[in-house]
Amino acid sequence: MMLNRQGRPTTPNQQAESDAAGTITGNRGLLMEEALIFEQGEAGRTGVDLPDAPKVQDRLGGLKRQGRIGLPGLSEPQVIRHFVRLSQKNYSIDAGLYPLGSCTMKHNPRLNEKVARLPGLGDIHPLQPVSTVQGALELIDQLAGWLKTLTGMPAVAMSPAAGAHGELCGLMAIRAALKARGDVRKRILAPESAHGTNPATAAMCGYTVDPIPATADGRVDLAALKAKLGPDVAAIMLTNPNTCGLFERDIKTVADLIHGVGGFFYCDGANFNAIVGKLRPGDLGIDAMHINLHKTFSTPHGGGGPGSGPVVLSDALKDFMPLPYVIHDGVGYSLVEQDGGRSFGRMKGFHGQMGMFIRALAFMLSHGGDGLKRVSEDSVLSANYVMASLKDIMSPSFEGPCMHEALFDDDFLKETGVTTLDFAKAMIDEGYHPMTVYFPLVVHGAMLIEPTESESKDSLDMFIATLRGLAEKAKRGNQATWFQGAPRLTPRRRLDETRAARSPVLRWKPGTNGAPVGQAAE
Protein backbone atom coordinates (compact mmCIF):
# COMPACT_ATOMS: atom_id res chain seq x y z
CA MET A 1 0.00 0.00 0.00
CA MET A 2 1.27 3.46 -0.92
CA LEU A 3 1.19 6.14 1.79
CA ASN A 4 0.93 9.87 1.26
CA ARG A 5 2.94 12.56 3.03
CA GLN A 6 0.68 12.35 6.08
CA GLY A 7 1.08 8.56 6.29
CA ARG A 8 -2.50 7.97 5.19
CA PRO A 9 -3.55 5.55 2.41
CA THR A 10 -3.63 7.10 -1.03
CA THR A 11 -6.38 7.25 -3.60
CA PRO A 12 -6.79 4.35 -6.09
CA ASN A 13 -5.16 6.41 -8.85
CA GLN A 14 -2.14 7.15 -6.69
CA GLN A 15 -1.93 3.49 -5.68
CA ALA A 16 -1.85 2.53 -9.35
CA GLU A 17 1.00 5.00 -9.89
CA SER A 18 2.87 3.39 -6.97
CA ASP A 19 2.40 -0.07 -8.40
CA ALA A 20 3.69 1.13 -11.79
CA ALA A 21 6.71 2.68 -10.11
CA GLY A 22 7.46 -0.52 -8.21
CA THR A 23 8.09 1.28 -4.91
CA ILE A 24 6.15 1.70 -1.66
CA THR A 25 6.30 5.50 -1.80
CA GLY A 26 5.75 5.91 -5.50
CA ASN A 27 9.16 7.62 -5.67
CA ARG A 28 11.71 6.56 -8.28
CA GLY A 29 15.05 7.22 -6.66
CA LEU A 30 15.41 11.01 -6.57
CA LEU A 31 12.27 11.53 -8.66
CA MET A 32 9.83 12.15 -5.82
CA GLU A 33 6.13 11.45 -5.89
CA GLU A 34 4.41 14.69 -4.88
CA ALA A 35 0.87 15.32 -3.71
CA LEU A 36 -1.05 18.53 -4.35
CA ILE A 37 -0.14 21.29 -1.96
CA PHE A 38 -3.74 21.30 -0.68
CA GLU A 39 -3.53 17.58 0.08
CA GLN A 40 -0.47 18.20 2.24
CA GLY A 41 -1.92 21.10 4.19
CA GLU A 42 -3.40 20.82 7.66
CA ALA A 43 -5.34 23.42 9.58
CA GLY A 44 -3.26 25.25 12.17
CA ARG A 45 0.14 24.41 10.68
CA THR A 46 2.21 27.39 9.65
CA GLY A 47 5.77 28.42 8.97
CA VAL A 48 5.43 31.86 10.55
CA ASP A 49 3.90 33.43 13.66
CA LEU A 50 1.83 36.50 12.92
CA PRO A 51 0.42 38.83 15.58
CA ASP A 52 -3.31 39.13 15.86
CA ALA A 53 -4.72 41.78 13.58
CA PRO A 54 -5.79 44.94 15.40
CA LYS A 55 -9.49 45.52 15.81
CA VAL A 56 -10.44 48.22 13.35
CA GLN A 57 -13.62 49.31 11.67
CA ASP A 58 -13.52 47.86 8.19
CA ARG A 59 -14.81 49.72 5.13
CA LEU A 60 -15.86 46.63 3.15
CA GLY A 61 -19.55 47.52 3.13
CA GLY A 62 -20.80 44.05 4.06
CA LEU A 63 -18.35 42.25 1.77
CA LYS A 64 -16.16 40.92 4.56
CA ARG A 65 -15.13 37.28 4.11
CA GLN A 66 -17.28 34.92 6.19
CA GLY A 67 -15.35 31.68 5.78
CA ARG A 68 -11.73 30.60 5.76
CA ILE A 69 -9.53 31.73 2.90
CA GLY A 70 -8.76 28.13 1.96
CA LEU A 71 -4.96 28.22 1.88
CA PRO A 72 -3.12 25.05 2.94
CA GLY A 73 -1.36 24.95 6.30
CA LEU A 74 2.30 24.13 5.69
CA SER A 75 5.67 24.50 7.34
CA GLU A 76 8.52 26.22 5.52
CA PRO A 77 10.35 22.94 4.69
CA GLN A 78 7.15 21.54 3.22
CA VAL A 79 6.71 24.55 0.96
CA ILE A 80 10.34 24.47 -0.21
CA ARG A 81 10.31 20.73 -0.87
CA HIS A 82 7.00 20.90 -2.70
CA PHE A 83 8.14 23.47 -5.25
CA VAL A 84 11.63 21.95 -5.63
CA ARG A 85 10.05 18.58 -6.39
CA LEU A 86 7.69 20.16 -8.89
CA SER A 87 10.63 21.91 -10.57
CA GLN A 88 12.37 18.53 -10.98
CA LYS A 89 9.44 17.37 -13.09
CA ASN A 90 9.92 20.16 -15.64
CA TYR A 91 11.66 19.66 -18.94
CA SER A 92 13.68 22.67 -20.04
CA ILE A 93 16.34 23.75 -22.50
CA ASP A 94 18.73 23.67 -19.54
CA ALA A 95 17.96 19.96 -19.03
CA GLY A 96 18.26 18.70 -22.58
CA LEU A 97 17.64 19.04 -26.30
CA TYR A 98 14.28 20.67 -27.06
CA PRO A 99 13.40 19.63 -30.64
CA LEU A 100 10.11 21.54 -31.03
CA GLY A 101 9.77 22.49 -34.68
CA SER A 102 8.47 25.99 -35.49
CA CYS A 103 9.35 27.10 -31.94
CA THR A 104 13.15 27.55 -31.97
CA MET A 105 13.85 26.50 -28.38
CA LYS A 106 17.45 27.67 -28.24
CA HIS A 107 19.85 28.15 -25.36
CA ASN A 108 19.44 31.38 -23.35
CA PRO A 109 23.02 32.57 -22.63
CA ARG A 110 23.64 33.46 -18.98
CA LEU A 111 25.44 36.59 -20.14
CA ASN A 112 22.05 37.93 -21.24
CA GLU A 113 20.62 37.34 -17.77
CA LYS A 114 23.53 39.12 -16.07
CA VAL A 115 23.14 42.17 -18.30
CA ALA A 116 19.37 42.30 -17.75
CA ARG A 117 19.97 42.51 -14.00
CA LEU A 118 22.51 45.31 -14.07
CA PRO A 119 21.64 48.35 -11.92
CA GLY A 120 20.09 51.00 -14.10
CA LEU A 121 18.52 48.37 -16.35
CA GLY A 122 16.93 45.86 -14.01
CA ASP A 123 15.45 48.46 -11.67
CA ILE A 124 14.01 51.14 -13.96
CA HIS A 125 10.31 51.91 -14.22
CA PRO A 126 8.30 52.83 -17.33
CA LEU A 127 6.81 55.88 -15.62
CA GLN A 128 10.16 57.49 -14.83
CA PRO A 129 10.84 60.86 -16.46
CA VAL A 130 12.44 60.47 -19.87
CA SER A 131 15.46 62.44 -18.68
CA THR A 132 16.27 59.67 -16.17
CA VAL A 133 16.14 56.76 -18.66
CA GLN A 134 18.28 58.08 -21.49
CA GLY A 135 20.41 54.92 -21.42
CA ALA A 136 17.36 52.68 -21.72
CA LEU A 137 16.01 54.65 -24.67
CA GLU A 138 19.43 54.53 -26.32
CA LEU A 139 19.44 50.74 -25.84
CA ILE A 140 16.02 50.46 -27.50
CA ASP A 141 17.20 52.64 -30.36
CA GLN A 142 20.36 50.58 -30.79
CA LEU A 143 18.38 47.33 -30.86
CA ALA A 144 16.04 48.86 -33.42
CA GLY A 145 19.06 49.77 -35.52
CA TRP A 146 20.30 46.17 -35.49
CA LEU A 147 16.85 44.88 -36.50
CA LYS A 148 16.61 47.36 -39.38
CA THR A 149 20.11 46.46 -40.58
CA LEU A 150 19.52 42.71 -40.38
CA THR A 151 16.21 42.91 -42.26
CA GLY A 152 17.01 45.69 -44.71
CA MET A 153 13.90 47.62 -43.63
CA PRO A 154 13.73 51.37 -42.89
CA ALA A 155 11.52 51.29 -39.78
CA VAL A 156 10.64 49.07 -36.86
CA ALA A 157 7.81 49.14 -34.35
CA MET A 158 9.21 47.96 -31.02
CA SER A 159 6.08 47.84 -28.87
CA PRO A 160 4.36 44.56 -29.97
CA ALA A 161 4.45 42.01 -27.18
CA ALA A 162 4.92 38.78 -29.18
CA GLY A 163 4.54 37.15 -32.59
CA ALA A 164 0.75 37.23 -32.84
CA HIS A 165 0.72 40.79 -31.50
CA GLY A 166 3.28 41.64 -34.17
CA GLU A 167 1.05 40.16 -36.86
CA LEU A 168 -1.77 42.35 -35.59
CA CYS A 169 0.56 45.37 -35.73
CA GLY A 170 1.56 44.61 -39.33
CA LEU A 171 -2.00 44.14 -40.55
CA MET A 172 -3.19 47.26 -38.74
CA ALA A 173 -0.44 49.23 -40.48
CA ILE A 174 -1.53 47.74 -43.81
CA ARG A 175 -5.15 48.56 -43.10
CA ALA A 176 -4.21 52.15 -42.18
CA ALA A 177 -2.18 52.54 -45.38
CA LEU A 178 -5.07 51.27 -47.51
CA LYS A 179 -7.49 53.59 -45.71
CA ALA A 180 -5.18 56.55 -46.25
CA ARG A 181 -5.39 56.06 -50.00
CA GLY A 182 -9.15 55.50 -49.88
CA ASP A 183 -8.82 51.83 -50.81
CA VAL A 184 -11.20 49.37 -49.15
CA ARG A 185 -10.06 45.78 -49.54
CA LYS A 186 -11.48 42.74 -47.79
CA ARG A 187 -9.36 39.71 -48.67
CA ILE A 188 -6.13 38.28 -47.23
CA LEU A 189 -4.33 35.42 -49.00
CA ALA A 190 -2.73 32.81 -46.71
CA PRO A 191 -0.86 29.64 -47.72
CA GLU A 192 -2.30 26.46 -46.21
CA SER A 193 0.90 25.92 -44.23
CA ALA A 194 0.60 29.31 -42.49
CA HIS A 195 0.77 29.54 -38.71
CA GLY A 196 -2.72 29.41 -37.24
CA THR A 197 -2.36 32.92 -35.88
CA ASN A 198 -2.11 34.32 -39.44
CA PRO A 199 -5.75 33.70 -40.47
CA ALA A 200 -6.90 34.49 -36.92
CA THR A 201 -5.19 37.89 -37.06
CA ALA A 202 -6.63 38.63 -40.49
CA ALA A 203 -10.14 37.80 -39.27
CA MET A 204 -9.62 39.96 -36.18
CA CYS A 205 -8.81 42.89 -38.49
CA GLY A 206 -12.03 42.36 -40.42
CA TYR A 207 -10.64 40.52 -43.44
CA THR A 208 -11.76 37.30 -45.02
CA VAL A 209 -9.05 34.66 -45.46
CA ASP A 210 -8.51 32.97 -48.82
CA PRO A 211 -6.20 29.92 -48.57
CA ILE A 212 -3.49 29.19 -51.14
CA PRO A 213 -2.60 25.52 -51.68
CA ALA A 214 0.93 24.16 -51.83
CA THR A 215 2.65 22.25 -54.60
CA ALA A 216 3.92 18.70 -54.20
CA ASP A 217 7.29 20.05 -53.06
CA GLY A 218 5.75 21.96 -50.13
CA ARG A 219 5.86 25.50 -51.51
CA VAL A 220 3.25 28.07 -52.55
CA ASP A 221 1.41 27.12 -55.73
CA LEU A 222 2.07 30.14 -57.97
CA ALA A 223 -0.67 29.21 -60.42
CA ALA A 224 -3.24 29.08 -57.61
CA LEU A 225 -1.94 32.38 -56.25
CA LYS A 226 -2.27 34.11 -59.61
CA ALA A 227 -5.83 32.81 -59.96
CA LYS A 228 -6.82 34.44 -56.65
CA LEU A 229 -5.29 37.85 -57.27
CA GLY A 230 -7.62 40.80 -57.68
CA PRO A 231 -8.25 44.43 -56.70
CA ASP A 232 -9.81 43.34 -53.40
CA VAL A 233 -6.66 41.61 -52.10
CA ALA A 234 -5.23 43.62 -49.20
CA ALA A 235 -2.21 41.43 -48.51
CA ILE A 236 -0.66 38.01 -48.43
CA MET A 237 0.53 36.51 -45.12
CA LEU A 238 3.36 34.13 -45.90
CA THR A 239 6.03 32.46 -43.77
CA ASN A 240 9.54 32.17 -45.18
CA PRO A 241 11.21 29.79 -44.56
CA ASN A 242 7.79 28.20 -44.45
CA THR A 243 6.25 25.98 -41.82
CA CYS A 244 7.44 22.86 -43.63
CA GLY A 245 11.02 24.02 -43.06
CA LEU A 246 11.49 24.95 -46.72
CA PHE A 247 12.60 28.17 -48.39
CA GLU A 248 10.07 29.67 -50.79
CA ARG A 249 12.05 29.80 -54.04
CA ASP A 250 9.52 32.08 -55.74
CA ILE A 251 9.34 34.60 -52.93
CA LYS A 252 10.38 37.59 -55.05
CA THR A 253 7.80 36.65 -57.69
CA VAL A 254 5.13 36.42 -54.99
CA ALA A 255 6.03 39.95 -53.82
CA ASP A 256 5.87 41.32 -57.37
CA LEU A 257 2.48 39.70 -57.97
CA ILE A 258 0.98 41.11 -54.75
CA HIS A 259 2.38 44.57 -55.37
CA GLY A 260 1.12 44.37 -58.93
CA VAL A 261 -2.48 44.36 -57.71
CA GLY A 262 -1.86 47.06 -55.09
CA GLY A 263 -1.63 44.72 -52.09
CA PHE A 264 1.01 44.36 -49.38
CA PHE A 265 3.31 41.52 -48.42
CA TYR A 266 3.24 40.46 -44.76
CA CYS A 267 5.90 37.91 -43.85
CA ASP A 268 5.62 35.83 -40.69
CA GLY A 269 9.09 36.15 -39.17
CA ALA A 270 8.88 33.19 -36.80
CA ASN A 271 11.59 31.38 -38.76
CA PHE A 272 14.02 34.30 -39.09
CA ASN A 273 16.57 32.23 -37.15
CA ALA A 274 17.16 30.26 -40.37
CA ILE A 275 18.20 33.25 -42.47
CA VAL A 276 19.44 36.00 -40.12
CA GLY A 277 22.75 37.35 -41.41
CA LYS A 278 22.29 35.44 -44.66
CA LEU A 279 19.35 37.21 -46.26
CA ARG A 280 17.55 40.55 -45.76
CA PRO A 281 13.76 40.21 -46.02
CA GLY A 282 13.50 43.80 -47.26
CA ASP A 283 15.41 42.79 -50.39
CA LEU A 284 12.64 40.33 -51.22
CA GLY A 285 9.92 42.99 -51.42
CA ILE A 286 8.42 42.32 -47.98
CA ASP A 287 6.40 45.19 -46.47
CA ALA A 288 6.01 44.03 -42.88
CA MET A 289 7.49 41.22 -40.80
CA HIS A 290 7.40 40.49 -37.10
CA ILE A 291 10.51 39.15 -35.37
CA ASN A 292 10.17 36.85 -32.37
CA LEU A 293 13.05 37.94 -30.14
CA HIS A 294 12.68 34.70 -28.16
CA LYS A 295 13.17 32.58 -31.28
CA THR A 296 15.93 34.36 -33.12
CA PHE A 297 17.71 36.35 -30.42
CA SER A 298 17.57 33.98 -27.44
CA THR A 299 15.30 35.79 -24.99
CA PRO A 300 13.30 33.41 -22.72
CA HIS A 301 10.54 31.57 -24.51
CA GLY A 302 6.98 30.99 -23.40
CA GLY A 303 5.71 29.93 -20.01
CA GLY A 304 3.26 32.81 -19.90
CA GLY A 305 6.02 35.33 -19.30
CA PRO A 306 6.88 38.48 -21.18
CA GLY A 307 7.48 38.27 -24.91
CA SER A 308 8.55 40.65 -27.62
CA GLY A 309 7.69 40.78 -31.31
CA PRO A 310 9.04 43.92 -33.02
CA VAL A 311 7.71 44.57 -36.53
CA VAL A 312 9.90 45.89 -39.33
CA LEU A 313 8.14 48.01 -41.95
CA SER A 314 8.84 49.07 -45.51
CA ASP A 315 8.83 52.63 -46.87
CA ALA A 316 5.20 52.14 -47.87
CA LEU A 317 4.16 51.40 -44.26
CA LYS A 318 6.63 53.21 -42.01
CA ASP A 319 4.43 56.30 -41.58
CA PHE A 320 1.65 54.14 -40.14
CA MET A 321 3.66 52.44 -37.37
CA PRO A 322 2.20 52.46 -33.85
CA LEU A 323 3.01 54.92 -31.10
CA PRO A 324 5.14 55.48 -29.14
CA TYR A 325 8.56 55.31 -30.80
CA VAL A 326 12.03 56.54 -29.88
CA ILE A 327 13.71 59.49 -31.60
CA HIS A 328 16.96 61.36 -31.08
CA ASP A 329 16.79 65.10 -31.62
CA GLY A 330 20.54 65.72 -31.51
CA VAL A 331 20.44 66.47 -27.81
CA GLY A 332 18.86 63.41 -26.28
CA TYR A 333 16.38 60.58 -26.71
CA SER A 334 12.65 60.94 -26.31
CA LEU A 335 9.46 58.98 -26.89
CA VAL A 336 7.01 60.27 -29.47
CA GLU A 337 3.57 59.77 -27.93
CA GLN A 338 1.63 61.85 -30.47
CA ASP A 339 2.91 62.73 -33.91
CA GLY A 340 -0.16 64.21 -35.59
CA GLY A 341 0.56 61.92 -38.52
CA ARG A 342 -0.94 58.76 -39.90
CA SER A 343 -0.02 56.27 -37.16
CA PHE A 344 -2.81 53.81 -36.43
CA GLY A 345 -2.35 54.51 -32.71
CA ARG A 346 -1.09 52.71 -29.64
CA MET A 347 -0.93 48.94 -29.19
CA LYS A 348 -0.04 48.66 -25.51
CA GLY A 349 0.54 50.66 -22.38
CA PHE A 350 4.25 51.28 -22.77
CA HIS A 351 6.94 50.91 -25.40
CA GLY A 352 7.66 47.20 -25.18
CA GLN A 353 9.28 44.57 -22.98
CA MET A 354 12.51 46.11 -21.71
CA GLY A 355 13.90 42.89 -20.27
CA MET A 356 13.60 41.18 -23.63
CA PHE A 357 15.19 44.14 -25.42
CA ILE A 358 18.22 43.96 -23.13
CA ARG A 359 18.69 40.22 -23.62
CA ALA A 360 18.28 40.40 -27.40
CA LEU A 361 20.81 43.22 -27.76
CA ALA A 362 23.26 41.37 -25.50
CA PHE A 363 22.95 38.35 -27.80
CA MET A 364 23.56 40.51 -30.88
CA LEU A 365 26.55 42.35 -29.43
CA SER A 366 28.17 39.19 -28.09
CA HIS A 367 27.88 37.46 -31.48
CA GLY A 368 28.43 40.37 -33.83
CA GLY A 369 27.29 40.34 -37.43
CA ASP A 370 29.53 37.42 -38.38
CA GLY A 371 28.40 35.44 -35.34
CA LEU A 372 24.71 35.88 -36.16
CA LYS A 373 25.39 34.60 -39.65
CA ARG A 374 27.09 31.56 -38.11
CA VAL A 375 24.07 30.99 -35.86
CA SER A 376 21.87 30.76 -38.94
CA GLU A 377 24.29 28.49 -40.77
CA ASP A 378 24.64 26.14 -37.80
CA SER A 379 20.88 25.89 -37.23
CA VAL A 380 20.35 24.90 -40.87
CA LEU A 381 23.31 22.49 -40.74
CA SER A 382 21.93 20.82 -37.61
CA ALA A 383 18.50 20.29 -39.17
CA ASN A 384 19.96 18.84 -42.34
CA TYR A 385 22.20 16.55 -40.32
CA VAL A 386 19.12 15.21 -38.54
CA MET A 387 17.31 14.85 -41.87
CA ALA A 388 20.21 13.03 -43.57
CA SER A 389 20.71 10.71 -40.58
CA LEU A 390 17.07 9.63 -40.34
CA LYS A 391 15.74 9.64 -43.90
CA ASP A 392 16.54 5.96 -44.45
CA ILE A 393 14.44 4.81 -41.49
CA MET A 394 11.86 7.57 -41.05
CA SER A 395 9.93 9.25 -43.87
CA PRO A 396 10.81 12.85 -44.85
CA SER A 397 7.76 14.72 -46.08
CA PHE A 398 9.58 16.36 -48.99
CA GLU A 399 12.60 15.59 -51.13
CA GLY A 400 15.83 17.54 -50.83
CA PRO A 401 17.47 19.61 -48.11
CA CYS A 402 15.55 21.60 -45.52
CA MET A 403 16.24 24.87 -43.78
CA HIS A 404 16.25 25.08 -39.96
CA GLU A 405 13.80 22.26 -39.28
CA ALA A 406 13.37 18.72 -40.60
CA LEU A 407 9.84 17.53 -41.33
CA PHE A 408 8.81 13.85 -41.27
CA ASP A 409 5.40 12.23 -41.70
CA ASP A 410 4.02 8.96 -40.31
CA ASP A 411 4.44 6.91 -43.48
CA PHE A 412 7.26 4.90 -41.86
CA LEU A 413 4.81 3.80 -39.13
CA LYS A 414 2.23 2.31 -41.51
CA GLU A 415 1.08 -1.18 -40.53
CA THR A 416 3.03 -1.01 -37.25
CA GLY A 417 0.05 -0.05 -35.09
CA VAL A 418 2.13 2.84 -33.76
CA THR A 419 0.86 6.39 -34.22
CA THR A 420 2.72 9.68 -34.26
CA LEU A 421 1.42 10.30 -30.73
CA ASP A 422 2.68 6.90 -29.55
CA PHE A 423 6.10 7.63 -31.03
CA ALA A 424 6.24 11.06 -29.38
CA LYS A 425 5.19 9.68 -25.98
CA ALA A 426 7.85 6.96 -26.18
CA MET A 427 10.46 9.70 -26.62
CA ILE A 428 9.58 10.97 -23.14
CA ASP A 429 10.66 7.65 -21.64
CA GLU A 430 14.00 8.15 -23.37
CA GLY A 431 14.46 11.54 -21.70
CA TYR A 432 13.49 13.75 -24.64
CA HIS A 433 10.76 16.31 -25.04
CA PRO A 434 8.90 15.25 -28.21
CA MET A 435 9.20 17.24 -31.39
CA THR A 436 6.19 19.24 -32.63
CA VAL A 437 3.60 16.69 -33.78
CA TYR A 438 0.62 16.90 -36.14
CA PHE A 439 1.81 20.30 -37.39
CA PRO A 440 1.87 21.58 -40.06
CA LEU A 441 -1.63 20.27 -40.73
CA VAL A 442 -0.90 19.78 -44.42
CA VAL A 443 1.32 16.78 -43.57
CA HIS A 444 -0.29 13.61 -42.21
CA GLY A 445 1.07 12.59 -38.82
CA ALA A 446 3.67 15.35 -38.98
CA MET A 447 6.83 15.30 -36.84
CA LEU A 448 8.61 18.65 -37.06
CA ILE A 449 12.14 18.73 -35.60
CA GLU A 450 14.16 21.91 -35.03
CA PRO A 451 17.46 21.25 -33.22
CA THR A 452 18.68 24.89 -33.50
CA GLU A 453 22.33 25.89 -33.38
CA SER A 454 22.56 25.25 -29.63
CA GLU A 455 23.27 21.50 -29.84
CA SER A 456 26.66 19.85 -30.23
CA LYS A 457 27.23 16.99 -32.67
CA ASP A 458 27.38 14.58 -29.72
CA SER A 459 23.98 15.80 -28.54
CA LEU A 460 22.49 15.42 -32.02
CA ASP A 461 24.02 11.96 -32.44
CA MET A 462 22.38 10.72 -29.24
CA PHE A 463 19.04 12.20 -30.30
CA ILE A 464 19.31 10.63 -33.75
CA ALA A 465 20.26 7.24 -32.26
CA THR A 466 17.22 7.40 -29.99
CA LEU A 467 14.82 8.10 -32.86
CA ARG A 468 16.42 5.37 -34.96
CA GLY A 469 16.05 2.92 -32.09
CA LEU A 470 12.38 3.76 -31.60
CA ALA A 471 11.68 3.51 -35.34
CA GLU A 472 13.33 0.09 -35.44
CA LYS A 473 11.30 -1.14 -32.48
CA ALA A 474 8.08 0.11 -34.05
CA LYS A 475 8.83 -1.77 -37.27
CA ARG A 476 9.66 -4.95 -35.33
CA GLY A 477 6.23 -4.96 -33.72
CA ASN A 478 7.23 -3.91 -30.20
CA GLN A 479 4.09 -1.82 -29.82
CA ALA A 480 2.87 -3.19 -26.48
CA THR A 481 6.29 -3.01 -24.80
CA TRP A 482 7.55 0.34 -26.04
CA PHE A 483 4.65 2.43 -27.33
CA GLN A 484 1.28 1.36 -25.98
CA GLY A 485 0.55 3.51 -22.95
CA ALA A 486 3.91 5.31 -23.12
CA PRO A 487 5.34 7.14 -21.28
CA ARG A 488 5.90 4.43 -18.67
CA LEU A 489 8.70 6.01 -16.63
CA THR A 490 7.28 9.46 -15.87
CA PRO A 491 5.59 10.58 -12.62
CA ARG A 492 2.26 10.23 -14.46
CA ARG A 493 1.23 7.93 -17.28
CA ARG A 494 -0.40 9.01 -20.51
CA LEU A 495 -3.46 11.18 -20.01
CA ASP A 496 -6.77 11.06 -21.82
CA GLU A 497 -5.94 14.37 -23.51
CA THR A 498 -9.30 14.73 -25.25
CA ARG A 499 -11.20 14.33 -22.00
CA ALA A 500 -8.76 16.62 -20.20
CA ALA A 501 -9.37 19.35 -22.77
CA ARG A 502 -13.15 18.94 -22.79
CA SER A 503 -13.73 18.31 -19.09
CA PRO A 504 -10.84 19.88 -17.19
CA VAL A 505 -10.78 19.61 -13.41
CA LEU A 506 -10.18 23.22 -12.52
CA ARG A 507 -11.02 23.26 -8.83
CA TRP A 508 -9.89 21.11 -5.91
CA LYS A 509 -12.11 20.37 -2.93
CA PRO A 510 -11.43 18.11 0.03
CA GLY A 511 -13.50 14.93 -0.05
CA THR A 512 -14.72 12.50 2.57
CA ASN A 513 -12.15 11.28 5.13
CA GLY A 514 -9.53 13.63 3.71
CA ALA A 515 -9.40 11.98 0.28
CA PRO A 516 -9.00 14.64 -2.40
CA VAL A 517 -11.73 15.01 -4.98
CA GLY A 518 -11.38 17.03 -8.16
CA GLN A 519 -14.41 19.07 -9.02
CA ALA A 520 -14.95 21.08 -12.18
CA ALA A 521 -15.45 24.80 -11.71
CA GLU A 522 -19.08 25.81 -11.60
Number of strands: 15
Query: Biggest sheet: strands side by side, in what order?
Result: 1-7-6-5-4-2-3
Global Rg = 27 Å
Amino- and carboxy-terminal Cα gap: 34 Å
- The name of the CATH topology of the domain at 111-365 is Aspartate Aminotransferase, domain 2
The low-pLDDT segments are: 1-7, 512-522
What would you call the shape?
Answer: globular
Please write the string of helix (H) and strand (E) elements. HHHHHEHEHEHEHEEHEEEHEEHEEHHHEE
Tell me the major beta sheet.
7 strands, mixed
What is the annotated CATH architecture of the domain at 111-365? Answer: 3-Layer(aba) Sandwich
Number of helices: 15
Derived from helix and strand composition plus strand pairing, the structural class reads alpha/beta
Structure description:
- By secondary structure, this protein is of the alpha/beta class.
- The protein has a domain at 111-365: Aspartate Aminotransferase, domain 2 (3-Layer(aba) Sandwich), CATH 3.40.640.
- The chain is 34% helix and 11% strand.
- It is built from 15 helices and 15 strands.
- The protein has helices at residues 12-21, 37-40, 76-87, 110-116, 134-151, 163-180, 197-204, 222-228, 251-260, 293-296, 354-390, 420-429, 457-475, 479-483, 497-502; strands spanning 155-157, 187-191, 208-212, 233-239, 264-268, 288-290, 311-313, 325-328, 333-336, 395-396, 406-409, 436-437, 447-449, 507-510, 516-519.
- The strands form 4 sheets. Strands 1-7-6-5-4-2-3 form a 7-stranded mixed beta sheet, sandwiched between helices. It has a 4-stranded antiparallel beta sheet with strand order 10-11-13-12. Strands 8-9 form a two-stranded antiparallel sheet.
- The chain is globular, with a radius of gyration of 27 Å.
- Residues 1-7 and 512-522 have low confidence and may be disordered.
- It catalyses: N(6)-[(R)-lipoyl]-L-lysyl-[glycine-cleavage complex H protein] + glycine + H(+) = N(6)-[(R)-S(8)-aminomethyldihydrolipoyl]-L-lysyl-[glycine-cleavage complex H protein] + CO2.
- Residues 7-17 have a biased composition (Polar residues).
- Residues 1-22 are annotated as: Disordered.
- Residues 377-479 form the Glycine dehydrogenase C-terminal domain.
